[in-house]
Amino acid sequence: MHRGKLSQLKGFVTEVSALAFHAVVIGVSAGIAWSLPNIARQFLTFWSHVEQEKMLLLTIEVGVALLLIVMSNYLWRAHKDRRQAVMARGAGLFSFFPLHDPGAGKTIRELKQQQSLGRTVLAIGVTGNGTVVDGKSEVHALLETCLEAKLILLNPFSEEAARRAQSLSHPDISPDRFHQELQDTIALIKRFRVNGKVIRLKLYSDRPHLRMVILGDYLWLQHYHTGLDVRWMPEYVFQHNPDHHGLYTLFYQYFTKRWENQEIPEYDFETNELVYRTRNGAELRREPFSHGDSTGLTPSELTSLERSLAAG
After folding, report:
1. Rounded CA Rg of the chain
2. Residue range 175-198: average pLDDT?
3. Which of 38, 139, 181, 246 is least surrounded, with the fewest CB atoms within 10 Å of its CB?
4. pTM of the entire predicted model
5. Sheet holding 283-288, edge to edge
6. Secondary structure class of 300 (helix, strand, coil)
7. Could you tell me the residue range of the domain that residue 122 belongs to?
8. Is residue 87 part of a domain?
9. Is residue 4 part of a domain?
10. For residue 256, is it within any domain?
11. Number of domains comprising the chain
12. Residue 177: half-sphere exposure toward Cβ, Cα within 13 Å
């Protein structure tokens, strides 16, 4: 209710601002036209006094030349910026937030909350601690208002989790820390599920590359850089393009491929087990979610097993 009134107020302010801007432009144009004859007379009077002053004329010429240089550089830069903006729009880039900008975090949260109501949240990350568990984080709020959620997080018992922790070179970061953070995320998801939220979780074991959140026609993206905390990496926002030539479609397909990957098991919230399934959803096997987990089967063996189940 309050959000609806706030949106109406913002729309009204926008319309009034547009009308006020046009009124100011018309007023300035009328003032310039009205004052042109007087300006011309004053300029002729000024010129009659300075036309014999060589030094002053030279100064004016230099000043005009510098002004033309500055204007030409500005116009050329504006032209280049416009070309880059057209290319970015064609790639689907909607916005860009360097996270050292103090206002970026608030803007990102507002954009995500606007898109989350009644939507399906698709997200990839490491432990979900910075994006899910933190009550002030944007994804925590998204899970409260979304219709459904699919999360893909890093298995803290995998070798890549140990490599990721080691690359950060921080005394407080370790695989055990990743495990504890993931347990906090799972506990929070269980509370949401008790309240009727449809939230599914899968755990991958390969190297983390992206932290990504997909909401409707918008996609938020950060990349994991070796030795750097993802919170200090810039965040990109991509928008779905009806012509399907933007990067939104590419990243959406990336998430879909990851979610359908047979080697990535789904976490069972009831039994604390990892469930491996075939492409048609049939259950292959279960493993306890604990240290020393391994798939046990190669991709070719998984395919063979799937075929045998289908034949049976």
Report:
1. 29
2. 87
3. 38
4. 0.69
5. 93-97, 235-239, 218-223, 210-215, 120-124, 148-154, 198-204, 266-268, 273-277, 283-288
6. helix
7. 96-297
8. no
9. no
10. yes
11. 1
12. 12
